[in-house]
Amino acid sequence: MASDCKHPTCFDSPFCRRVKKVKKIYRLRPFSKKRADINKVYSVEAKKFREENPLCRINSPVCIINTQGVHHVKGKATVQLLMDKKFWKPSCNPCNGYIEDHSQWAQENGHKIPDY
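Below the sequence we write its predicted structure tokens.
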């Protein structure tokens, strides 16, 4: 059973042995170039905010007291919401996760503003 390939290395062989082109592997960006530039500014501002506010203000049942990040009360979908400090609260990572898992509790305690 010969292959239909007419390449000289494949003559009288059941399989084609021609060297195949290697596909280039592309890496997808985690952020767009524009958002990456905004994140550079945001990270500096967020670090300063965390240093000025060392204690978590969420106080959920899983709180560890020390600030580890910034909670965005109104979300961070747009650049304006991401950078608007009046919607920032210092929080620890467990509290931030608790807010995501318990939306009703977060809304009742003023830690999340629903977008209607």
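Residues 29-108 form one domain.
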